[in-house]
Amino acid sequence: MDMDMASSGMFVPPQTLGTVLCCICGVPMEPNPANMCARCLRSRVDITEGLPRHAAIVHCPECSSWLQPPRSWLRAELESPALLSLCLRRIHKPLSRLVRLVHGEFVWTEPHSKRIHVKLRVQREALHGAILEQSHLVEFTVQDRLCESCSRAQASPDQWVAAVQLRQHVPHRRTFFFLEQLILRHGAAARAVRIKETSSGVDFFFGHRSHAMKFVEFVSGVVPVRRRSDKQLVSHDTKSNNYNYKYTFSVEICPICREDLICLPPKVSNSLGNLGPLVICAKVSNSILLVDPETLRTAFLDADEYWRTPFGALLSSRQLVEFIVLDVKKKTPEVTVSGSRYCLARVEVARMSDFGQNDTTFDIKTHLGHLLKEGDVVLGYDLYSANSNDVEMGKYKGFELPYAILIKKSYEEKRQRKHGKQRKWRLKRMQMEVDDGARGRGSEEKRNNEYEEFLRELEENPTGMLDQMTIYKNKDHRPSETASMLSGDDDLPLDELISKLELSDDEEGEEDEDMAQ
């Protein structure tokens, strides 16, 4: 109707909201049920009456966790949303009974003051149905007290309840380095009381059996394992009939690693559709990806199938030999399996040790046809001169071994150009004790060399494993124009994978201390 009146040209008086005078101070105001302005209403009615102004919160100084009554502990940083939620839960009952919470935020205080200030905006019905909003400051006193895990560890490091023993029977630690990064990224060992590195694996100690079981479930989800558990009686209270046990979980990781050459047992080969018998382990997660380098047939082998008929590697990555590519012949179309590309091709190669010494060459099939060109250096297994006494190989009558099987392209020339140059990225390390059996100058040097090989492998295969890790910037990296000109376009695309986080000084100190042990 208003639109019709406006269109017809009729005069429409502007609508104004009526005002009344405050019954106390006489100031014009919008009418409300109390007939008082906001200033007078706030001076006569305090809606925060009955709300707590002081409260206490318990903090563990060792692990930076906060007590969530009655017995659980929550890890949270200062002025974090998790800590704000915990503080509000401490005063939830009077808040929900008296007022309506609109907003809450921290007010900055000195970190060493042992005080946390939380500013609240609350609403409440005042006189005659008028809604009044007011701010309210609550001061929380921080009381330091060790949590159960930290007090047990501080009293005696051996006071653990459950232990997880991770073992893998291989001559290297590549799997443990990779598993360490997965554990750090997902915080799987955050509740561990102590971590000890042994000569054949790593031991994790927990203050509760449930924490150890959760950690075992995590490891079972990322690598193929078999496990067993045992318990030992520590004490028994005959009056209350309470038993105290120490639990031990033994977790054995599958000895098959990436890039291993495997001769499948006939029973396993038949169950996988007559795959192989010579296959390459292309990827290890909670299952094993096997690739036949001569047919590009693939199969996944889960943990249950493997441990039903366990087998070992015919040759491992420590036995790789350098070959030079002389000719690349016909190729087949590329195929993609589990994020990796393969292309079947026929190539002519010669061992680097024979190159220029004799005319011995090998004409072989390879699954790396999409990567290789003439003059490339590749790493592979020399089956022509290898002396293998594998039991499974003797079960295949009339099977002829190929002269060589190529595994990956070599980046040795690129390594030499980058020799002595710092990496622009780094990995975080777990703080571990070193067992007496794993100490010694030779053991430490071997461990450092294996870790350096692991970092090189990450550089050469960034899309294979780096996307499952958290990569940090290296603050000590100083790029130089000469190094960047020499590297050219050969640098691997790691910038998009590097996290924008940096290791703090405390974390770097812990890492340096761990490496020095």
TrEMBL record:
<keyword id="KW-0653">Protein transport</keyword>
<dbReference type="InterPro" id="IPR039768">
    <property type="entry name" value="Nmd3"/>
</dbReference>
<dbReference type="Pfam" id="PF21193">
    <property type="entry name" value="NMD_SH3"/>
</dbReference>
<dbReference type="GO" id="GO:0005737">
    <property type="term" value="C:cytoplasm"/>
</dbReference>
<feature type="domain" description="Nmd3 N-terminal">
    <location>
        <begin position="22"/>
        <end position="253"/>
    </location>
</feature>
<comment type="function">
    <text>Acts as an adapter for the XPO1/CRM1-mediated export of the 60S ribosomal subunit.</text>
</comment>
<keyword id="KW-0813">Transport</keyword>
<dbReference type="GO" id="GO:0000055">
    <property type="term" value="P:ribosomal large subunit export from nucleus"/>
</dbReference>
<dbReference type="Pfam" id="PF21192">
    <property type="entry name" value="OB_NMD3"/>
</dbReference>
<feature type="region of interest" description="Disordered">
    <location>
        <begin position="472"/>
        <end position="517"/>
    </location>
</feature>
<feature type="region of interest" description="Disordered">
    <location>
        <begin position="415"/>
        <end position="449"/>
    </location>
</feature>
<feature type="compositionally biased region" description="Basic and acidic residues">
    <location>
        <begin position="430"/>
        <end position="449"/>
    </location>
</feature>
<feature type="compositionally biased region" description="Acidic residues">
    <location>
        <begin position="504"/>
        <end position="517"/>
    </location>
</feature>
<dbReference type="InterPro" id="IPR007064">
    <property type="entry name" value="Nmd3_N"/>
</dbReference>
<feature type="domain" description="60S ribosomal export protein NMD3 SH3">
    <location>
        <begin position="256"/>
        <end position="301"/>
    </location>
</feature>
<keyword id="KW-0963">Cytoplasm</keyword>
<protein>
    <recommendedName>
        <fullName>60S ribosomal export protein NMD3</fullName>
    </recommendedName>
</protein>
<feature type="compositionally biased region" description="Basic residues">
    <location>
        <begin position="416"/>
        <end position="429"/>
    </location>
</feature>
<dbReference type="GO" id="GO:0043023">
    <property type="term" value="F:ribosomal large subunit binding"/>
</dbReference>
<dbReference type="Pfam" id="PF04981">
    <property type="entry name" value="NMD3"/>
</dbReference>
<dbReference type="InterPro" id="IPR048899">
    <property type="entry name" value="NMD_SH3"/>
</dbReference>
<dbReference type="InterPro" id="IPR048898">
    <property type="entry name" value="OB_NMD3"/>
</dbReference>
<comment type="similarity">
    <text>Belongs to the NMD3 family.</text>
</comment>
<dbReference type="GO" id="GO:0015031">
    <property type="term" value="P:protein transport"/>
</dbReference>
<keyword id="KW-0539">Nucleus</keyword>
<feature type="domain" description="60S ribosomal export protein NMD3 OB-fold">
    <location>
        <begin position="320"/>
        <end position="409"/>
    </location>
</feature>
<dbReference type="GO" id="GO:0005634">
    <property type="term" value="C:nucleus"/>
</dbReference>
